[in-house]
Amino acid sequence: MKTKTHTDKRILAIADPIAKDMGLNIVRVRVQSGRRKTVQIMAERISDGLLGIDECENLSRELTATLDVEDPIHDPFILEVSSPGMERPLTALEDFKHYAGYKARVDLDRLVEGRKRFRGTLAGIDGKNIDIDLDGEDETAQIPFDWISEAKLLITDELIKAGQSAKDAAYKNLDNKPDTQENE
Domain range spanning residue 130? Predict the structure, then answer.
């Protein structure tokens, strides 16, 4: 689910090693059509899941140079690099484990019990299945990861608190880093 199309996959193959070298993880790649194509890349730091403006700029600069050479689209495009945000897409099986305890919406590529959209609290993973405590139901449902077409976290008070705690910890770590500039 990091990608949907062949072009998305080609761009991910180009972008992923660059991002990894910068300590970043690519969360999702989408090419949007329009008057001018837009390549949307969501990324986050491997260490804490956050992404600052400087990191967006640096990744964008590195990707622009490489995408211009590799030319996976063959048309002019606009590159947008951003963090996944609070309602982050869940694009890898490990995301469902990492965000266990948080509310999510999961859309499937097929009908299950007469519907494609499910909402509930993530309960982890079991093999290649995600576990989710569906709203209004008593039992935990298991959904094969391969059946998921889209999934994202839903904003709740708990998610907001966790996001703020992660930001606070990141800023505290920045404050505790030794000054690397030499005194003149």
Answer: 93-157
Q: How many domains does the chain have?
A: 2
User: Does 75 share its domain with 100?
Assistant: no
Contact partners, residue 82, CB within 8 Å, separation at least 6: 40, 41, 42, 43, 51, 56
User: CA 56 to CA 34: how far, in whole Å?
Assistant: 23
State the CATH number of the domain containing residue 78: 3.30.300.70
Q: What are the residues facing 126 on neighbouring strands?
A: 129
The pLDDT tens digits for 106-154 are 999 999 989 999 999 999 999 999 999 999 999 899 999 999 999 999 9
